[in-house]
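Reviewer comment 2.1 asked that we show a complete input and output for one of the modelled complexes. We chose the FE2/S2 (inorganic) cluster case, as it is the one discussed in the main text.
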Amino acid sequence: MAIIRYIDLAGGVTELQVPAGTSVMQAAVNHGLAGIVGECGGSAMCATCHVYLDENDTDRFPPISAPEEEMLECTASPRLASSRLGCQLVVNEHDVITVRLPETQQ
Ligand code: FES
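Response of the prediction step:
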């Protein structure tokens, strides 16, 4: 199992325990977490799963791919250096990662 911590705008923390192989987007959607939509179902085609990945966790994931890069230019909230698509962040066994939710996804 892995642990994903989602921090909302008010600083509230939701911690989800999920199986390895689950994406940050899928875990949020499965648990009805507000703040992540995942409109395209994880195909890197909507940018409604935008999150800000904690800088300490950057190395746990592959770098931004060309399709992800393209979609990150379409986020509803400002793109920051830490911006990622939640559907492209797939956790491994024993990962403990933290993401911050943007102001809006649409
Ligand atoms: S769910 Fe659509 S880009 Fe991630």
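Residues 2-100 form a domain with the Ubiquitin-like (UB roll) fold (CATH 3.10.20.30). We note this here for comparison with the apo prediction described in Section 3.2.
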